[in-house]
Amino acid sequence: MSEPKYSEYSLPRSHAISFLRSKLGIINAEELFHHDKKTLLSQIIYSWHQVIPFQNLSQIANSQGGLKEAPTAEEAVRDILGNQGTGGLCGSHAVGAYHILKSIGYDCYPIVGDVPSMGMCHGIIIVKDLEHSGDLHLVDVGASHPTLGSIPLQLSGKLVDRSDIKTHSFLTYKFVRDGRIFRRLHLKSRIEPRTGSNVIENHQDRDQVWVEFYSFKLDPVSVEELRGCLNRNSYLCPKSKFNRLLLLCKYPSGKYVGVKGFKEGRECEDDNCLKFTQFEDNESFKHFCKENYPEIPENVATRALNCWRNLPESLRM
Asked: Using CA atoms, how far apart are residues 19 and 17, in angstroms rounded to an integer?
């Protein structure tokens, strides 16, 4: 039986290896892949969060007063592997990651996540047989919230009922299984600001409240099917927060540095919570972008800011 084909686009392996070496700083990727695929995957995920921005400035700046479609496979790969590696929303990250991992040699496929109040609009990658036949691991490099390692969902053919509880940067989270559905839950007390709308009280953890961030099934989708979901429920949806709110996010050394709205966000050293501070003016916003996000051209940051300010008051977040 031939292998399922999830994308018509094919990325040369040499381009993926060069990206790992020059952008992510992984110089022994080929050797690691043959001897320890799990360690290599962990390094890719962690380094990706450090250096590839999750951001919608390119989306807003290039919308030309309207709405811009989710990137094609070729565009998504360019967003990640391009000279500047500007990143983007999950459409760029998930599709780019799929083609990079696939070209390196990982057996993987895309799936789509269901986000409360938004619908099927989040791209995720599943890696098969990472250590043993029948393994399934989740890779999520484009959620703005950190997932700094792969998450086992099935080991040697047996579905996992719940993941270990993880704390990455400001966020404590876990995955739980409900039949065929997996749910990603965030610990409410460590979320700033609130990141979901489905509150699950005492979800088998006494005295703790968890919030559902997204849910998903393990059913594969093609890159074009994923793109269609993203367009319907996110990219081409005027009320989507990604068209109404300035967003920038990276995790240098595993710590959040970003923008939400017209506020600079950083992780507090003492308790890992996020602290947001209003920018004084347009110049302070552009200076922050230049200092912390040199991958994003200054004219893109300026154009995005102007487009955001020109949104109707009822839409702007």
From this structure: 5
- One-letter amino acid for residue 39 of the chain: T
Enter the tokens of residue 215: 């849910």
Instruction: State the amino acid at position 315 in one-letter form.
Output: L
Mean pLDDT value across residues 222-248: 90
Overall size of the chain counted in residues: 317
Residue ranges of domains in the chain, CATH in brackets: 13-158+221-309 (3.30.2140.20)
pLDDT on residue 206 = 54
Query: Do the bridges between strand 107-115 and strand 257-260 make them parallel or antiparallel, or are there none, so unpaired?
Result: unpaired
Q: Over the stretch 109-159, which tens digit does the pLDDT of each residue have? A: 999 999 998 989 999 999 999 999 999 999 999 999 999 999 999 999 999
Cβ-in-10-Å burial (0-12, 13-18, 19+) of 252 comes to exposed
Positive or negative, the CA dihedral 240, 246, 249, 255 is negative
In angstroms, the first-to-last Cα distance of the chain is 50
Q: Is 277 exposed, middle or buried (0-12, 13-18, 19+ CB in 10 A)?
A: exposed
CB 129 within 8 A of CB 135: yes
Whole-number Cα distances in Å, 289 to 173, 186, 268, 272, 292: 28, 28, 20, 22, 5
- Listed in sequence order, the residues at least 6 apart from 27 whose beta carbon sits closer than 8 Å to its beta carbon are 21
